[in-house]
């Protein structure tokens, strides 16, 4: 068997309130095209709300595990994102949105991933788009030891209904104890990470515990994950790195300052007129 892809960096994340963030700007050269990964967890019965704010230059993927997210944006769309659904917001030239997380039995939990858009007008500066995909439409690949849910991209000849602007694969995997999960991403998918939600796993002799993120070495080697004496759940993301600068002002990511400035003007205008959205 081919040698598995090693982990080069393991992160515990920075927690602020109910949100733990894992990709600071100084790591963009390692994580490209991934520019944000957040794990939101709350055990409070109250709703969590964010008023209108703007983004551009990224594709934002939201995936609630427990509870519901009510999402409004300037496309204009209103989506109710239930547990297991996936919402993808292509911010492009600039979008504003607001969201409210509604707990279920006093628990809210969700993931959010941002992927930088390729540097072309049809991608990075495209017209914004907001799409919701129902949990029943995602392929589930089952074998004796694992179940893999294909959130985005292709896995073992099965395709997700979501088509990203980036060449991206996003998988949600549940494994039994004392088992191995093996995946060889397409050759150009050199950027990969794993995030462990529960259990304990090993990858190329590196141990991961819950709420840790591991970045794999840029390589065409396969990814091998092995469980211990307990079942585990984890997310794996793989993508083709972008051959462009990644410049951020925290809310947006672009390939150049000119695009950041143009998009910020668009976002400011949308915020000034947000009262016209009637939400």
TrEMBL record:
Domain of life: Bacteria
One Pfam match: Pirin
Gene3D superfamilies, per the entry: Jelly Rolls (2.60.120.10)
Domain Pirin N-terminal: 28-115
InterPro entries: Pirin (IPR012093), Pirin_N_dom (IPR003829), RmlC-like_jellyroll (IPR014710), RmlC_Cupin_sf (IPR011051)
Family stated for the protein in its record: Belongs to the pirin family.
Protein name: Pirin family protein
Organism: Photobacterium toruni
